[in-house]
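Posting this for the archive.
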Amino acid sequence: MAVFELRPPLTAEERVQKRKLIIRDSISLFSLFLITVILAVLTYSLFSSFARHRDALARRWRANGERALKNGNAKEAINDLHSALEYAPGQRDLEIELATALAAAGNYREATAYFSSLLEAQPGNGYIHLQLARLAAKQDNPKLAEEHYQRALDGTWEGDGYLRRLSVRLELARYLISQKNFDKARNELRTAAGNAPDVPETQLQIAALMEQAQDPEDALQIYRSQMQRKNAPIEAFEGAGRTAYALGRITIARNALARAVGHPQFAAQDENTRIAVNQMLEHSIRILQLYPDPNLNVRTLADRILADSRVARARLDACSANANAGEQLTTLRGQWQQIPENLTARALEEDPQLEQTTMSLVYDTEQETAQVCGAPSGDNALLLKIAQSPMAVHQQ
């Protein structure tokens, strides 16, 4: 049987002392808790203040760097962006901007290394591939440049990726043109034309690049399509006239160039453009006056062939007078001797075979004398234009 020892009850004085001790300990604990809370609040406030100040400095240096880069001061931009990264380390957008500034400053190797390291973390980033393509192009590495351009087209883009990819494809086409790689450039431009929005500015840009890529046929199709628009821009008519003339499709060229000259915006074109368009229009009109159009009435056709033969014979005589050219044109002169010296329009009118033979000699004369004596001028140059593609003159 357990025996419990009974403690004597506390006296009144002991109870008072115990109460005081409890109160004092409670106050001490509360004070420690309050001090801890205050210190935590102060620490958080100080850290927040520092973080805000650091972010503010990063934004300020970044803004300075972007401004310097926009103004073409790449070296200053590099320093500013380096400072921004010290306050915001590891920020991808800042790192990309710094790499862009390095490239703009001509530090191609450093920029390439920087972008390559960024690419390891984002291998499908279209913008990074685009920058690496540009850097490879500047360092004369066409194979690597084309590879990065293609990866940029297949990569991911922020914002409107459709339009960004179109911009990259056109940039790639320009690069291929600069490398004289016209076949690949034409393929890229045809893809761009098929995918691009039907907006005049975009379509005309593609058509102009097609001309540079030696693809006037496809360029002409785009120009003619844009000509059908209401209030079509003058560039559509000028482009159609220019490419049609290059292809020898003179009827189309004349009509398009005439509309260009009559366009409300023609007077605002620069002087060189106005002169070129007017001259091409004059040449187109004159070519159609020289062309032996089979649809002409018999007498008019004969008169035209007779006039053309006189122009060609005069060119042959002038070219043959050159001692170095005489022997090369012996065969051609012999062929002309088979044509009556006093050829008349009536003789041509009565002999369709003679018409055909005479006109073939005209074309041969203009082409051979151009090779022997150099580029002709005047009506000879226009007959040479017809001779290069007679069937295209009235082609629609």
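Residues 162 and 326 are 62 Å apart (CA to CA). The two ends are 128 Å apart (CA to CA).
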